[in-house]
Structures are given as structure tokens and as C-alpha cells.
């Protein structure tokens, strides 16, 4: 999406001149000749940048007054002040009240365009830094080499540039927000804001205020922008959208249709250009049948459905993910990196991970910080929490004190091979080809061995 610039000047010739310069460079523009029309235009749809004349003939507010109003509502929008009667004091006052720069008339078009580019870039960097501070280290890529996650990444690459709305489904902690961030980062709106609203954490009586904002008083005091307005030019993620109150669902349907809405307490409609993504861990068709979710909203959100698989559906990704989370935790905590032993990896791959990737990440961080012993010692299976270790393959819980010495060699060997192959099948979700590759056998030979031992590919028990 192109940047939109609001040009405010009381001289029509100046407005048209600047308008022509900016449009030739691919910018979108809106024009205003006095303070009331300027503030009205700003509130109707937030621009990317404002070019503002200091002296406005016959206007209720001069440029500095407009600057104060703009900064009071949206300090993130950069403003460039221009004036043919400027003084050092005026320039200093403008900068003190939040202007990005001050340019004297007459100005060179190259100088104006350079300042605009710098202001927009500074605004983008400030927005990214603010988001990083609020969300320390958000994931931006769905990691893993499994075929299922590779398929999801391929779908994202195809849908991201299209601008279509996407409904992302998947269990809690599976990476739905990561998928949404990937879509945003690969879209034509990548330079715009990414705003996430978790519908499950809001009280119903506050929902519309967060979504649409509050109009406030006529002088601008008490006004607060909502997430739809803050996401203008970018992407809004409605996370856990099934928790949105049914009363609000009707209003968001109209907002999606018209790309406009009314703030709470307001009478005029605010226009926005926002790509809306939605995420849910519930079956929305069941919610529709139960009357908890509007069918028309579902079809507006689910233009392209995208499902993020649970971690237990891609067990082969667990070793790489666990090591990545360990490495990041070590970097953040300033601790030495610890390796995962083979038995620990097998145990991790055998666990069902109800909390998905989020649970794995939290466990790796906890293990790195809390595990006793030398910082270079590997993390072994017995160091894992009981909830993780109890589902480990029988081989990992083999009792060395058992009377294996009382068995003939053939029976002892068969017992070991049975438990070993059960462990590896469990580790790779019953996938014969991947198990064969790991254990170093031909696929047909592994089939014969499993048949001989009486082990089935979906056997999850101990031997």
C-alpha cells in the first residue's frame, strides 16, 4: 500500500504544487486549507505523514495549534512544518511540539522529498522498535522441515501477496500468530503496522472501545484510537476471534464490508485500509450452529482458510525446534548452551505436547536455567519433568536391574530390538520411511523385522 500524505496550507497554489510533486512520486494525497478541515481529515483516516503550514490565514488554529492536536492524538504520525515567514523561534517551537522537521518556503522539491522519505523511514523504524519492546522477540517464521509445516509455509507464500483475508486455525500454542506475522511480512503491507487483538482477554463491555476507539470530547480530549485505526495501512490480527461478543460481530461485518466504522460515542464514520486476519483454536462451524458466531462474519473472514498443525503432528521437527529454543534462551539469559542427549530427544518426540510449540519453548528455557550440574553437561531424559518423561518409549525406562541376564541371548536381543523399534516408531509418528532412514535399514527390511517381532507401525506401547 502507498503512503498517504495530508497537505495543509491556506494557499491553493501551494497545495496543488505540493500535491503534484507527491503524486508524481507515487504518494497518495489529501488536501486541507484550514484547521477544521485538516483535523477532520486527520480523524477520518489517519495519514502516513502530514505537511503542515505554520501560518493559516482565517483559520481557527494556526499550524502549531494543529500540530499539538495531531500529536495529542497520534504522536507516531510524522509532521513536516513549512512556512514562508518562519523564524528560528518558530522552528524551535515546532520541533519541541513533536514536528519531524521544518522547511522554509520556497523549497526545492528534491529537499522536500528527501525529508519525507527520511520521516517515513524513521516512523517505520520507531513503530517496529515499539512493537519489539512490547512483544519481546516475537517469532516471525514457522520453523521445521516436516512436510506438513513446509506445506503451511508454501500456502503462506502464495496467499501473503494477495491481500485476501485469512482464517488461521489450530490448537493453542501451535503458532497461529507466527503464521499471521509471516503473512504480514510477505505482503505488500509489510512496511505498515502489524496489530494483534486477543479477543479472549477482553471483557465484553470493553471490546468495542478496543476495536473501534472512543470519540471523546470535541476538543480532542479523551479521544482514543482503536486497533482498527492503529492498523491503518497494515494488518490487524483478531486472535481467538470465536470469543468476540455476538453484538460486536455484526458491527465488524459492516466495518469489513465498508472499510469504515464509527468510534464509540461518535457519529461520523472513520475510513481505514486494513487487511484483517483472524485466528481460532475452536470449530467455528460448531459455534455457528450453536448461535455463538455469525455465519456472514465467518465467510468474510475465511476467504482463505489456513490450518497450523499441532506439534504432535510433526514430531520430526521437535529436535530442531528444541535446540533452537535452547539457543535463544541461552542468548537471552547469558548462559552457556547445553546439548540435548539422544534419550532426551527421543523422550521429547514421544510426548504429545498439549501446549504445542509454546510448551516446548517454555520447557527448554526452564531446563536451561534450572537444571543442576556443569553448564556443559547435556540434558538427559531423566532431567525432564515427569509429565514429559512418563510417555517416553519403554526403552528409555528400561530397568537395568531386571533379570535380563536370565534370558537366552536370542530372547534378550528380541526384547531390546522390540523396545528400540517401538521407541523409534513412536518418535517418528509411525512413519516407516523416516524410521528406516534413522535406524539405518532398508524400508522392506524394517517391515520384515517389525513383522517378525510382532510390532505394528501404530504400536505406542512398551514391549
UniProtKB/TrEMBL annotation:
<protein>
    <submittedName>
        <fullName>Sigma-54 dependent transcriptional regulator</fullName>
    </submittedName>
</protein>
<keyword id="KW-0804">Transcription</keyword>
<dbReference type="InterPro" id="IPR058031">
    <property type="entry name" value="AAA_lid_NorR"/>
</dbReference>
<keyword id="KW-0597">Phosphoprotein</keyword>
<feature type="domain" description="Sigma-54 factor interaction">
    <location>
        <begin position="142"/>
        <end position="369"/>
    </location>
</feature>
<dbReference type="InterPro" id="IPR002197">
    <property type="entry name" value="HTH_Fis"/>
</dbReference>
<dbReference type="Pfam" id="PF00158">
    <property type="entry name" value="Sigma54_activat"/>
</dbReference>
<dbReference type="InterPro" id="IPR025943">
    <property type="entry name" value="Sigma_54_int_dom_ATP-bd_2"/>
</dbReference>
<dbReference type="InterPro" id="IPR009057">
    <property type="entry name" value="Homeodomain-like_sf"/>
</dbReference>
<keyword id="KW-0805">Transcription regulation</keyword>
<feature type="domain" description="Response regulatory">
    <location>
        <begin position="4"/>
        <end position="120"/>
    </location>
</feature>
<dbReference type="InterPro" id="IPR003593">
    <property type="entry name" value="AAA+_ATPase"/>
</dbReference>
<dbReference type="InterPro" id="IPR002078">
    <property type="entry name" value="Sigma_54_int"/>
</dbReference>
<dbReference type="InterPro" id="IPR027417">
    <property type="entry name" value="P-loop_NTPase"/>
</dbReference>
<keyword id="KW-0010">Activator</keyword>
<dbReference type="InterPro" id="IPR011006">
    <property type="entry name" value="CheY-like_superfamily"/>
</dbReference>
<dbReference type="Pfam" id="PF02954">
    <property type="entry name" value="HTH_8"/>
</dbReference>
<dbReference type="Pfam" id="PF25601">
    <property type="entry name" value="AAA_lid_14"/>
</dbReference>
<keyword id="KW-0067">ATP-binding</keyword>
<keyword id="KW-0547">Nucleotide-binding</keyword>
<feature type="modified residue" description="4-aspartylphosphate">
    <location>
        <position position="53"/>
    </location>
</feature>
<keyword id="KW-0902">Two-component regulatory system</keyword>
<dbReference type="InterPro" id="IPR001789">
    <property type="entry name" value="Sig_transdc_resp-reg_receiver"/>
</dbReference>
<dbReference type="Pfam" id="PF00072">
    <property type="entry name" value="Response_reg"/>
</dbReference>
Amino acid at each position: 500500500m502507498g503512503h498517504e500524505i495530508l497537505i495543509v496550507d491556506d494557499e491553493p497554489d501551494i497545495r496543488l504544487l505540493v500535491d503534484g510533486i507527491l503524486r508524481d512520486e507515487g504518494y497518495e494525497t489529501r488536501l486541507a486549507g484550514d484547521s477544521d478541515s485538516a483535523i477532520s481529515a486527520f480523524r477520518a483516516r489517519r495519514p502516513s505523514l502530514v505537511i503542515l503550514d505554520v501560518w493559516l490565514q482565517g483559520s481557527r488554529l494556526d499550524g502549531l495549534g494543529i500540530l499539538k492536536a495531531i500529536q495529542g492524538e497520534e504522536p507516531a504520525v510524522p509532521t513536516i512544518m513549512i512556512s514562508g515567514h518562519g523564524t528560528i523561534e518558530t522552528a524551535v517551537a515546532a520541533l519541541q511540539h513533536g514536528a519531524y522537521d521544518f522547511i522554509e518556503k520556497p523549497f526545492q522539491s528534491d529537499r522536500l522529498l528527501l525529508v519525507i522519505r527520511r520521516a517515513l523511514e524513521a516512523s517505520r523504524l520507531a513503530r517496529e522498535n515499539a512493537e519489539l519492546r512490547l512483544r519481546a522477540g516475537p517469532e516471525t517464521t514457522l520453523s521445521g522441515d516436516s512436510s506438513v509445516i513446509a506445506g503451511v509455509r508454501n500456502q503462506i507464500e502464495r496467499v501473503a501477496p494477495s491481500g485476501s483475508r485469512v482464517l488461521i486455525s489450530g490448537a493453542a500454542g501451535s503458532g497461529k500468530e507466527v503464521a499471521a506475522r509471516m503473512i504480514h511480512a510477505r505482503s505488500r503491507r509489510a512496511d505498515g503496522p502489524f496489530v494483534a487483538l486477543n479477543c479472549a482477554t477482553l471483557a465484553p463491555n470493553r471490546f468495542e472501545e478496543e476495536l473501534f476507539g472512543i470519540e471523546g470530547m470535541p476538543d480532542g480530549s479523551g479521544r482514543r484510537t482503536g486497533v482498527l485505526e492503529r492498523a491503518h495501512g497494515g494488518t490487524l490480527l483478531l486472535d481467538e476471534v470465536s470469543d468476540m461478543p455476538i453484538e460486536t460481530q455484526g458491527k465488524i461485518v459492516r466495518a469489513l464490508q465498508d472499510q469504515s466504522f464509527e468510534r464509540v460515542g461518535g457519529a461520523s464514520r472513520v475510513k481505514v485500509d486494513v487487511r484483517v486476519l483472524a485466528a481460532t483454536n475452536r470449530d467455528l462451524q460448531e459455534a455457528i450452529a450453536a448461535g455463538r458466531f455469525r455465519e456472514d462474519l465467518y465467510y468474510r473472514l475465511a476467504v482463505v482458510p489456513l490450518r497450523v498443525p499441532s506439534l504432535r503432528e510433526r514430531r520430526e521437527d521437535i529436535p530442531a525446534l528444541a535446540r533452537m529454543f535452547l539457543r535463544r534462551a541461552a542468548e537471552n539469559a547469558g548462559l552457556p548452551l547445553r546439548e540435548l542427549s539422544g534419550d532426551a530427544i527421543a523422550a521429547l518426540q514421544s510426548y504429545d505436547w498439549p501446549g504445542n510449540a509454546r510448551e516446548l519453548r517454555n520447557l527448554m528455557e526452564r531446563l536451561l536455567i534450572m537444571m543442576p550440574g556443569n553448564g556443559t553437561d547435556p540434558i538427559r531424559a531423566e532431567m525432564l519433568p515427569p509429565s514429559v518423561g512418563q510417555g517416553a518409549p519403554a526403552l528409555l525406562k528400561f530397568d537395568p536391574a531386571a533379570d535380563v541376564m536370565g534370558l537366552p541371548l536370542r530372547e534378550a536381543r528380541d526384547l531390546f530390538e522390540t523396545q528400540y523399534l517401538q521407541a523409534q516408531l513412536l518418535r517418528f509418528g509411525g512413519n516407516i520411511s523416516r524410521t528406516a532412514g534413522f535406524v539405518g535399514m532398508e524400508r522392506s527390511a524394517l517391515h520384515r523385522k517389525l513383522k517378525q517381532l510382532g510390532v505394528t507401525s501404530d504400536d505406542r506401547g512398551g514391549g
